């Protein structure tokens, strides 16, 4: 297996399926068919779980970008951005600070093409067709648009569960290659699939999802536990603990019921680069 951006449209993609869960139409019929089969894996009363989990994830992204703006950060690097729908980084950042610069990165061609159409005329926002598994190459291209000597918001939202590595590489090392390059005061936001504390009756559908992702998309869907998620923040200063996305940076009284499957499907946190 070699790394690099993907251009094929002959099978479903993570971005296309996630887009459908966010209310979009996907990029191809393969996306729509795969999303339908995934939803069918859930019991009848829980088939809205993927949609609500995607919505919780996007709301977390919006809150995290707002937090970064409050801390004076004006540069944003969104890895694995997916398709542009509601709550895109530039739509949150630039109305508050027109000088904010945003770079989106995705290795699927569909999201890149849609962002390029959307961003026509927006000189402060750019999209890269690149593979996050190549940190050196991605950062070199991002540095043409962002000043990496100044604080940056780095987002990896709902992407690392789908990353397949080869050559004995380690996902923690890949993430560390990004966070080690961030200037002091930068912000790192992560969300990721987590199977810990899931009720026993919900785990079979989630593990079946992994089989569907492997079959339909050719990618894994890996659930981690909290201690494994915490390792991604080694060397950083946590702003929030690793917890449910609905609780990260949430306003008092806005938390979602603990028993909600969609709430318990992912964990995340926000951290700062010390110094």
UniProtKB/TrEMBL annotation:
UniProt KW keywords: Methyltransferase, Transferase
Signal sequence coordinates: none
A GO molecular function held by the record: methyltransferase activity
GO biological process terms on file: methylation
UniProt cross-references to Gene3D superfamilies, sorted A to Z: Vaccinia Virus protein VP39
Name the record gives this protein: SAM-dependent methyltransferase
Organism: Amycolatopsis tucumanensis
């Amino acid at each position: 297996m070699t790394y690099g951006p993907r251009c094929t449209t002959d099978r479903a993609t993570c971005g296309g399926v996630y887009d459908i869960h966010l209310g979009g139409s996907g990029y191809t019929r393969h996306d729509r068919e795969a999303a339908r089969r995934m939803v069918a894996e859930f019991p009848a009363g829980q088939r809205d779980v993927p949609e609500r989990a995607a919505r919780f994830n996007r709301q977390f992204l919006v809150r995290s970008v707002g937090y970064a703006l409050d801390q004076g950060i004006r540069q944003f690097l969104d890895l694995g951005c997916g398709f542009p729908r509601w709550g895109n980084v530039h739509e949150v950042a630039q109305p508050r600070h027109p000088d904010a610069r945003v770079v989106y990165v995705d290795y699927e061609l569909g999201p890149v093409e849609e962002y390029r159409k959307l961003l026509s005329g927006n000189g402060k926002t750019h999209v890269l067709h690149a593979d996050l598994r190549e940190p050196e190459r991605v950062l070199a291209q991002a540095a043409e648009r962002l000043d990496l000597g100044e604080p940056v918001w780095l987002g990896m939202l709902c992407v690392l569960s789908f990353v397949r590595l080869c050559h004995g590489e380690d996902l923690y090392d890949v993430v560390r290659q990004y966070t080690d390059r961030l200037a002091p005061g930068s912000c790192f936001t992560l969300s990721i699939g987590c199977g810990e504390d899931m009720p026993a009756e919900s785990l079979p559908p989630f593990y079946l999802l992994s089989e569907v992702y492997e079959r339909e998309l050719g990618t894994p869907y890996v659930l981690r536990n909290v201690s494994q998620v915490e390792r991604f923040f080694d060397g950083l200063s946590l702003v929030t603990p690793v917890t449910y996305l609905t609780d990260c940076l949430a306003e008092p009284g806005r938390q979602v019921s603990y028993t909600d499957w969609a709430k318990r499907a992912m964990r995340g946190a926000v951290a700062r680069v010390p110094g």
